[in-house]
């Protein structure tokens, strides 16, 4: 979405980022990264309309020695 202050936001497209291998490597090594890469954006008639720069990093959450009870979350949630 783009952001408009005085009117509704406009849908500008969508993207899919496949991260299965990133997650597998992150679990195995503790961290993984997809370096920032530029992708061309093309319209339905294949005309160039811009670029998208995207990068992703993944790190395992380190155990901080706290019990899950201290965080709340799903243990304290209820379905109505």
From TrEMBL:
Top-rank taxon, per record: Eukaryota
The entry's keywords: Calcium, Metal-binding
Example of a GO MF term: metal ion binding
PANTHER family according to UniProt: 16 KDA PHLOEM PROTEIN 1, C2 DOMAIN-CONTAINING
Stated name of the protein: Uncharacterized protein
Gene source species: Arabidopsis thaliana x Arabidopsis arenosa
């Amino acid at each position: 979405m783009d952001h408009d202050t005085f009117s509704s936001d406009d849908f500008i497209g969508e993207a899919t980022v496949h991260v299965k291998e990133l997650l597998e490597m992150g679990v195995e090594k503790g961290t993984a990264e997809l370096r920032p890469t530029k992708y061309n954006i093309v319209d339905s008639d294949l005309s160039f309309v811009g670029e998208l720069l995207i990068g992703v990093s993944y790190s395992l959450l380190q155990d901080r020695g706290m019990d899950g009870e201290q965080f709340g979350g799903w243990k304290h949630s209820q379905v109505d």
